[in-house]
Write a structure and sequence with these properties.
The complex is a heterotrimer of chains A (490), B (443) and C (265).
Chain A lengths: L1 H27 L11 H38 L11 H21 L4 H5 L5 H10 L10 H39 L6 H41 L2 H6 L3 E2 L10 E2 L2 H32 L2 H16 L2 H20 L13 H26 L2 H9 L4 H30 L2 H6 L17 H10 L7 H34 L2
Antiparallel strand pairs in A: 1-2
Chain B lengths: L22 H39 L4 E9 L3 H9 L3 H19 L8 H8 L2 H11 L8 E6 L2 H8 L15 H12 L3 E5 L1 H5 L14 H32 L4 H13 L4 H15 L7 H26 L2 H9 L4 H30 L2 H5 L14 H6 L5 H10 L4 H31 L4
Antiparallel strand pairs in B: 1-2, 1-3
Chain C lengths: L2 H8 L5 E12 L2 E12 L3 E5 L6 H7 L10 E9 L2 E2 L7 H7 E4 L10 H12 L5 H14 L3 H4 L12 H13 L5 E5 L7 H14 L4 E5 L3 H7 L2 E6 L2 E7 H6 L4 H7 L5
Parallel strand pairs in C: 3-8, 3-9, 6-7, 7-8
Antiparallel strand pairs in C: 1-2, 1-4, 4-5, 9-10
Helix pairs in contact in C: 4-5, 4-7, 5-7, 7-8
Classes of the chains: A mainly alpha (490), B mainly alpha (443), C alpha/beta (265).
Chain lengths: 490, 443, 265
């Protein structure tokens, strides 16, 4: 693992730099700590920061940029003739990368002599056989252009990484030298170090922004690729969802409407379960319950929130589904064909959301000032009249916000629908039929065998984009309402 | 008075007794009771669901912790081994020796039952091979009595646990109705029995047609490495980000942008983080699929907002007077924070981190997309570094894999896996609660 | 305090509305009210004065059982409204509070329209048979609250949008709308400016013609201006109770004198 070694070398330089900076500072003050501007450790830390930060910064940027650069260079090497009908440059590039990593593995296993692997005129058949012997995945015969591209891919990467190692180590040494040279009794090491630490803290905080950018870019980029292969209007307004399996021919119909319908239907069932139960539980806990009941019931309800969704998924698939089938299935009312259905997933998701709704509503009801209740009691209202006519109307905006947050949770929930809702995309009103959701299809499209460059896989990113925008919109709106509500009573 | 002209008759009920109740009061009192009852029903329903959930987890999951074994005490002399090794079908010779021993034990118990070698193979698999392998590895134990615990096949196990019954069983190459007579006889003789299923806890996943041999151990290791990545990355980054936002950030647009981002990321569906992981870590950076390293990176990004939010709350709970005191003796702002505020906030930060980790441990959806599901974790990683980069599964992903398999025998494993997962979560939450109780400080 | 007003006030001798004997209140382990005996007369303004934390508000909240909503509070003793014990098991506190209304320290209009604020009480108690009657009650109450002229054109506007003094008069109108027999006021002017205070004080004096009013106040001047009877509380004890003029000009107890002259408080 060369990067690990590089990492250790830079770390070692920084530790040596720390010790040297510290001792040089003490020396310059004649061994008397009082003659220094800052504590000796700050001088050491100064050298250390100057060693580590630029070196690692460069390392990270290099690691991000090099693959992009190499890809674009190698991709330019592939002649248009090498791209088969129905394929694309990105598919061929995937082939090249596979071949390149296969060549490395074959050489290291000794199935292929290194000289053959690097020889641009090597016999393609020999290379393919070598790859197969090494147990590498080879989809088809390797062609000459792909072999050459893979070879230059490997060599460019190798050169790139060696240059990177040298540059990073030199940068670390240079940083250490500068830090060491600056070290002097009058040097304001503490201020410099603190400024540096502050920048590092800011960088840590900025990771949240980077994550969002990463999400948006990965969604937008791949969605764009998808819309190049599949018309956007068919995606947004199509009422059929029937992806073809790769290799079987036939074109896929990838309309999002049935998935959105399934998503909303299941979410609505979930909210119909969670909102009344959660809201009444919150009302009881905050207005009626004695401290003892509250101390007992509230944490127990919140246990439901701490249970992983996979557990709910299994609960839906193996307990609730069969149970509903007994009642509504062919032996009962005859409405239900299989255990996986909108009702199953919705009911279980509702159970999951109960504590979410109840603790949010609890907070919001508690934020209604006591003066409001006193005013009502003072007029001779009963507790329930006070709650229904004064507390709840006052808390309404907050509760609406809480329900919207719960809805966003329901829309984004994956495991319960993957296991409990079924796989068939359907536009139906019967809640006992199996339907599927946006999240479930993201999973099935990306975990299947489809190639990442095919529309059947790329559609998952478009679905993800839709999901992201939907939930983000709901969250922003809900958080806005809740914040406004809180400001009102502060 | 301003309303001198409005001397309308009193509409109130002046002069009525306090204890006299009219129809309206009774109606209101009933409405009050009804409303209160709704609340009680709501809470009871919630708790009922909780009980049903746990009851079904325990009922379905506990059988996964027992397995059915045939335990036979066996002494093989060096001469017998010599003889067996000399035959053409070596394993058959061992198998014959085993059957002879079994017959002897049955006879000692006074039970007679007819069975042939094929029946033994249906019940226990290739017995001869197992015994031979044992003696090849431990030749020094020849001649001393050794108790062999041989795992019974999944269907026999199912017969013991009620999954398979005489009514539902159809003769197949896996198990025949007549074999159950043998099982009953062995049971009467105390030879076949239920034992604690250690292989389930320590073992790795098995193939799709062998539910009996599937264990969760390897995926626990996968989860462990993932959590290690999450802890090592999210704790320092989360604390650094919180310190910046709580103590140093100026009031400006950029700070607002960070704040908005954090609160929104906390509510982004986990599957979207899976898409991010797939696109950035696997497609763009070409990190290995199914590796705990990638899983850990994705879960780190997902856990960061949670950790940042709870860390900021603990920092905020440290009263400003502490900072003033430190600044007052000439400490820099940075020193005040790192020497005084951070240590005081540490228990709260730790509690929040443990809860964040517990959340990450149970998360499944993002792992689906980075290939941790579908990968059959057949073994343990070799070595510490390989633990991060070698493909592995994780507990929730393993549970999902089992739940998605066709063989009903895996369902029991999935429920059992849930019990183990929940035990880890319970332990983490208890640690968090103890930390909070122990170090909670009211200013 | 001149003698004229004292003579004028002594004219009002009314029947006893609320009779309190041996009243004790505990907050957990704290003995907040000790052995208080007070008679509250009908059509009279009774003022409770005393330093902060002396228990005057606590005692006031006993009179319509508002302390029931506080879990740790325990009330003992006999409180008789027109001869009936208000802490009797058979008494519904809801019915009691319809007879003994309350106005609070901070104006607390509901987040509803002005009309709905006032109509709230009549609606829950079923005082109006139809919309026209309800309109009438609302108008009458707002007139009695001396706020009708200011709000009659915007009855649909939210009550929270009014100024502090208007809000408090709206709350008084709201309390009056249920036709209480006794009106309890817990420092009704402490959150108001002097002009609004004057308006509310004038209103209290007018309300006296119909109701028995009990007002807790921090300001001795206010007690002297609006009340006929004054009770002085100190550390949970009722130190002195009598004619307002008497208390302010010739207190019997040295503690009352110290408080009135500003030496304790």
């Amino acid at each position: 693992m060369p990067i690990l070694w590089l990492f250790l070398i830079v770390a070692a330089i920084s530790v040596i730099g720390y010790a040297m900076g510290r001792s040089r500072a003490l020396q310059s003050a004649g061994g008397d700590i009082r003659g220094l501007h800052s504590l000796p450790n700050f001088y050491g830390a100064n050298v250390m920061l100057k060693t580590v930060v630029p070196a690692f910064g460069l390392l990270i940027i290099w690691l991000l940029v090099q693959p992009l650069y190499v890809d674009s260079q190698v991709s330019g090497l592939i002649p248009d003739t090498a791209i088969k009908e129905g394929s694309s440059r990105s598919l061929v590039m995937a082939e090249v990368r596979r071949a390149a990593s296969g060549l490395d593995a074959a050489v290291s296993q000794g199935q292929l002599p290194a000289s053959v692997a690097r020889d641009p005129n090597a016999d393609v058949a020999v290379v393919t056989q070598g790859l197969k012997d090494a147990g590498q995945v080879v989809t088809s015969e390797i062609t000459q252009p792909i072999l050459n591209a893979a070879q230059s891919y490997t060599s460019m990467n190798a050169v790139g990484y060696s240059v990177m190692s040298v540059v990073v180590i030199l940068l670390a040494l240079a940083g250490a030298a500068i830090g060491w040279w600056q070290t002097h009794a009058d040097y304001r090491a503490r201020n410099v170090v603190e400024q540096g630490v502050r920048v590092l803290l800011l960088a840590a905080a900025s990771i949240a922004i980077l994550t969002t950018i990463g999400i948006v870019l990965s969604l937008v980029f791949n969605t764009w690729e998808f819309f190049k292969l599949y018309p956007a209007s068919d995606f947004f307004f199509g009422t059929t969802w029937s992806p073809s399996f790769s290799g079987r021919g036939g074109s896929s119909e990838l309309g999002i409407i049935p998935l959105l319908w399934g998503t909303f239907y299941i979410s609505i069932v979930a909210l119909l379960v969670a909102v009344p139960i959660g809201l009444f539980a919150a009302i009881y806990l905050s207005e009626y319950a004695s401290p003892r009941v509250r101390a007992f019931a509230k944490p127990l309800l919140e246990v439901l929130a701490g249970i992983p969704t996979i557990v709910y998924g299994l609960f839906a698939l193996l307990t609730v589904g069969p149970l509903l089938l007994d009642v509504f299935g062919d032996n009962g009312l005859g409405w239900m064909k299989a255990g996986t259905a909108v009702m199953t997933a919705g009911l279980v998701m509702g159970i999951m959301l109960i504590p979410f709704v109840s603790s949010l509503s609890d907070d919001i009801i508690n934020a209604v000032p006591q003066a409001m209740r006193d005013g009502s009691y003072g007029l001779g209202a009963t507790q329930s009249e006070t709650i229904r006519q004064v507390v709840l109307p006052a808390a309404l905006p907050g509760i609406v916000g809480a329900i919207l947050l719960a809805a966003s949770r329901a829309i984004g929930e994956t495991m319960i629908v993957v296991l409990g809702a079924g796989a068939a995309a359907r536009l139906s009103l019967n809640p006992f039929e199996a339907m599927t959701t946006v999240t479930a299809k993201i999973v099935s499209q990306l975990t299947g065998d489809a190639d990442f460059a095919s529309p059947e896989a790329l559609v998952a990113f478009a679905l993800g984009m839709t999901l992201f925008i939907l939930t983000l919109g709901l969250n922003v709106f809900a958080l806005y309402i809740v914040r406004k509500y809180r400001e009102q009573y502060e | 008075m301003t309303d001198a002209s409005m001397q309308t008759p009193e509409t109130g009920r002046r002069g009525t007794s306090l204890t006299a109740t009219d129809e309206r009061t009774r109606k209101r009192a009933r409405a009050e009771k009804r409303f209160r009852l709704y609340g009680i029903i709501a809470i009871a329903t919630g708790l009922f669901f909780l009980v049903v959930l746990f009851a079904s987890i325990l009922r379905e999951g506990i059988p996964a912790f027992t397995r059915t074994v045939v335990s036979v005490e066996f002494t093989l002399t060096p001469e017998q081994r010599e003889e067996a090794e000399g035959t053409l079908f070596k394993t058959k010779a061992y198998s014959d020796l085993f059957i002879a021993q079994l017959n002897k034990e049955l006879a000692e118990s006074g039970i007679s039952v007819d069975f042939d070698e094929a029946a033994i193979e249906r019940l226990l698999g290739k017995v001869g091979g197992t015994i031979r392998a044992f003696y090849t590895e431990n030749p020094d134990r020849l001649g001393e009595p050794i108790e062999f615990d041989l795992a019974a096949s999944s269907r026999v196990d199912g017969y013991f646990k009620g999954r398979v019954s005489r009514d539902t069983l159809q003769d197949s190459r896996f198990l025949q109705l007549s074999d159950l007579d043998l099982v009953d006889a062995l049971k009467e003789a105390g030879i076949i029995k239920q034992a604690f299923n250690w292989p389930f806890i320590t073992g790795a996943d098995s193939g799709v047609d062998n539910p009996g041999g599937a264990g969760i151990g390897a995926s626990v290791v996968g989860s462990f490495f993932m959590m290690l990545v999450v802890l090592v990355l999210s704790l320092p980054i989360g604390v650094a980000a919180s310190i910046y936002l709580e103590e140093f950030a100026p009031q400006n647009k950029f700070t607002d942008l960070i704040e908005v981002n954090i609160s929104n990321l906390a509510a982004v569906p986990s599957i979207v983080f899976g898409i991010l992981g797939l696109a950035v870590f696997i497609q763009f950076m070409h990190l290995p699929q199914s590796a705990p390293l990638v899983g850990g990176l994705v879960l780190t990004l997902m856990t960061l907002p949670t950790i940042i939010i709870s860390t900021r709350a603990s920092l905020k709970a440290v009263p400003p007077s502490i900072r003033d005191a430190a600044l007052g003796v000439g400490a820099s702002k940075m020193q005040a924070v790192f020497h005084h505020v951070l240590p005081l906030a540490a228990p709260g930060i730790l509690t929040g981190t443990i809860i964040g980790l517990a959340q990450a441990l149970g998360e499944t959806a993002p792992l689906l997309l980075i290939g941790m599901v579908g990968f059959v974790a057949r073994g343990y990683p070799d070595g510490f570094l390989a633990g991060f980069t070698e493909p592995n599964s994780a507990m929730p992903a393993q549970i999902y894999t089992w739940a998605a398999r066709a063989d009903v025998g895996f369902y029991e494993k999935a429920w059992g896996g849930i019990i183990i997962l929940l035990m880890f979560l319970l332990t983490m939450n208890i640690i968090a609660i103890i930390l909070r109780r122990r170090f909670e400080r009211r200013w | 305090m001149n003698d004229m007003s004292r003579v004028e006030r002594q004219v009002d001798t009314n029947e006893i509305k609320l009779e309190c004997r041996d009243c004790q209140v505990y907050y957990g382990d704290t003995h907040a009210i000790k052995d208080v005996n007070v008679d509250i007369e009908d059509k009279t303004v009774t003022a409770f004065i005393g330093p902060s934390g002396c228990g005057k508000s606590t005692f006031l909240r006993c009179l319509n059982r508002m302390n029931d909503t506080i879990d740790v509070a325990r009330v003992m003793g006999s409180f008789k409204l027109d001869g009936e014990d208000i802490y009797d098991k058979r008494v519904d506190p809801v019915q009691l509070r319809a007879k003994v209304g309350m106005v609070f320290q901070k104006p607390n209009p509901f987040p509803k329209s002005i009309y709905d604020n006032v109509a709230y009480g009549p609606r829950i108690h079923g005082l109006a048979k139809n919309k026209a009657e309800l309109d009438e009650i609302v108008e009458k109450s707002l007139r009695r609250g001396a706020i009708w002229d200011e709000v009659k054109d915007r009855l649909d506007a939210p009550g929270t949008g009014l100024s502090g003094g208007q809000q408090q008069r709206l709350c008084i109108a709201r309390a009056v709308a249920t036709e209480p027999e006794v009106l309890l006021m817990d420092e009704p002017c402490s959150a108001l400016d002097p002009i609004a205070t004057a308006q509310v004080e004038e209103l209290i004096d007018e309300l006296r013609s119909r109701y028995s009013v009990v007002i807790v106040t921090h300001s001795m001047q206010q007690a002297a201006r609006v009340s006929q009877k004054t009770a002085f509380f100190h550390l949970g004890n009722l130190v002195e109770f009598g004619e307002t003029g008497q208390i302010f000009t010739n207190p019997e107890d040295p503690r009352t004198e110290s408080y009135i002259t500003g030496r304790i408080g």
